[in-house]
Design a protein that fits this description.
There is one protein chain. By secondary structure, the protein is mainly α. 85% of the residues lie in helices and 0% in strands. The chain is flat, with a radius of gyration of 23 Å.
Length: 119
């Protein structure tokens, strides 16, 4: 019986071991190992992981604004510990995003200089 890549991909991403996958698909562990290590399957796995990561990142980004609003609202909380924690987190995030913004700008400038050099 020929097992399609989608079935194999689903089982691999479910957290099962190769031995468990082999048993479920009535294959040997060596057969599963060969299929999983195949370049085409690895490409498919990589593309799927990227799609999942992109989806999660989109969801997190959409929630980021609400999360920041929550932290800002906590700055006025009656509990001094909550205020301190919110202030520390906001400062930490501001620093991290500032660094990330600078790195993205540096990368963009580097890419532009590489493009200019190639012309």
């Amino acid at each position: 019986m020929k097992i399609d890549n989608t079935t194999l991909l689903t089982l691999c991403l479910s957290g099962k071991t190769q031995a468990q996958i082999a048993k479920e698909l009535h294959m040997t562990k060596a057969q599963v190992c060969r299929r999983v290590n195949d370049a085409d399957f690895q490409q498919l796995l990589s593309e799927y992981r990227k799609a999942v990561l992109d989806s999660v990142l989109t969801e997190l980004t959409a929630s980021a604004h609400k999360s920041v609003e929550t932290l800002v609202a906590l700055l006025d909380d009656e509990n001094s510990f909550a205020r301190l924690q919110a202030a520390c987190k906001i400062l930490s995030l501001a620093q991290e995003y500032g660094i990330q913004k600078d790195l993205m700008q540096d990368i963009a400038e580097w890419k532009q200089s590489q493009a200019d050099t190639q012309q």
